[in-house]
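name: query_chain
kind: protein
chains: 1
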Amino acid sequence: MNVLFILPKLSGGGAEKIGAMVASMFTSYHQVYMILLQEGNPPYYPLDEKVHLLQAPAGQTVKSLEQMIRKQKRKWNIDCSISFLERSNELNVRTKGREYVIISIRNAYSLKYPEKEQRQLFAEVSQNTDHIVAISKYVKYDQMQYFHADENKMSVIYNPCPIEEIVSKADLPMEANEQALFKKGPVVVSAGRYVTQKGQWHLIRAFTKIVQDYPSAKLVLLGRGEDKDYLRQVIEKNHLTDSVSLCSYTTNPYTYMKHADIFVLPSLYEGLGNVLLEAMACGCPVISSDCYGGPRELLAPGTDILKQTDRMEPVEYGILVPAGDGQKTMDEPLSQAEKELTNAILYLLDDPRTKDHYRYQSRKRIQAFRKDIILHQWLDLLERKVVANESNVHHIWPFRKWRR
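structure:
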């Protein structure tokens, strides 16, 4: 089967990393092609050499991208095209010919895109594709509830986690300046883009109470993004310059995760929470906001995906805390959610046995996300949907009627 992957780029984002991983896994079973919508440096994320890669030239209009994708779909005789992220999904559906089109939804769009016009466009994309792969059960619910997606055209496939590769990188030696962070007191680590969605300021503010009990404790934030200056101001306003480090994006966050006492994800919303998987692969105890999206599914898989806790909640594979309210504050009194996050961190720091228990649980839970398990879910989807559909005549949707 000839399978095409469409992605914006291969650098800097979790979706791009997963797209590269899935495409590479497919090469043992199918002929794999990939189109990147943005011209740039060579792929940052590793890509199997058997993948036929094409990068769109710089400065392409939407129309020229559509023409290019249609041309390549015909040239490569594509049987199935799979896209990741919003723009790629839209172009994949708009260029649909006789191939089977699968779009991958990576986030809860009702939370990420509250504007009516954006929701209308995404609803049109969802309703005109052949199949939707949702990154979590909550994302599937979100697509059905707010974008009128057909449940019969939906599957939930979690992200694969390259456990062996992560463990291998986690065992690499740290630089001297990195080692210095771990020489005194407990260390709490978080990783993610410095953007509003990730809610890092809630964690920084919560840390003001941690250093009162553990003066030598360190908080290390790994990432980059537009909110870096704001986060630095929050650190300074709360007199945490000696306790909190904003570290630049690193290609190997796993050494930090391995040596950390706790990993915290303070997001306001998530599609799944891929960094939780990576931290768990490193055997790190995890605390996550119980935001809508995937964290509850990862840490408390037997519970209702629509539940949201209002207090610190130790669950089977980690600890859930209320999601922050998203209000960007500086040195005001802590919110209740920030207090509960403080309680969760102290709960683990004060009890080494509980912390060790969650280290074990992290390693146990991550086995459900092994690459071979997730790969066979994707292959099974293609077998059920694409191969079984080969004899059908695909309807070409009247995309010219779409609003831009």
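note: Residues 393-404 have pLDDT under 50 and may be disordered.
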